[in-house]
């Protein structure tokens, strides 16, 4: 059976990509390079929990792709439980994403916000 063509690529679920930003940048550049895989920059997305404002800003500057913010929870206390590595408030991270993405070209400026809803029985 033949697989359908790929239309989107998301870096997610393999550890925090911004902690390995240089290697992720190289991979994304190959995916979007016209003489390599030639994916649209809008079709490639790097998902992050936002480990720090400085890494978010750097990622927005160097990645030729979209960013996705894996929120986990809107409440800072619950988010700290679900993402123990969290060191910054939602407000700090939101403001950083907003400022960093404003500097990106319009074609890759959008931010995907990811949130999983889990029912507790």
TrEMBL record:
GO molecular-function terms, A-Z: 4 iron, 4 sulfur cluster binding; catalytic activity; metal ion binding
Cofactor section: [4Fe-4S] cluster
Keyword field contains Ion transport: no
Family annotation (Gene3D superfamilies): Aldolase class I
Protease recorded as keyword: no
One GO term of the biological process aspect: rRNA base methylation
UniProt keyword terms in alphabetical order: 4Fe-4S, Iron, Iron-sulfur, Metal-binding, S-adenosyl-L-methionine
Name recorded for this polypeptide: Radical SAM core domain-containing protein
Taxonomic source organism: Haptolina ericina
């Amino acid at each position: 059976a033949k697989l359908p063509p790929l239309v989107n690529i998301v870096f997610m679920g393999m550890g925090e990509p911004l902690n390995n930003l240089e290697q992720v940048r190289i991979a994304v550049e190959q995916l979007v390079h016209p003489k390599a895989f030639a994916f649209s920059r809008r079709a490639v997305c790097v998902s992050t929990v936002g480990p720090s404002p400085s890494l978010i800003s750097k990622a927005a500057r160097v990645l030729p792709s979209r960013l996705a913010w894996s929120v986990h929870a809107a409440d800072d206390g619950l988010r700290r439980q679900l993402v123990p590595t969290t060191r910054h408030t939602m407000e700090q991270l939101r403001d950083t994403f907003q400022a960093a993405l404003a500097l990106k070209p319009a074609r890759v400026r959008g931010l995907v916000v990811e949130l999983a809803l889990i029912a507790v029985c």
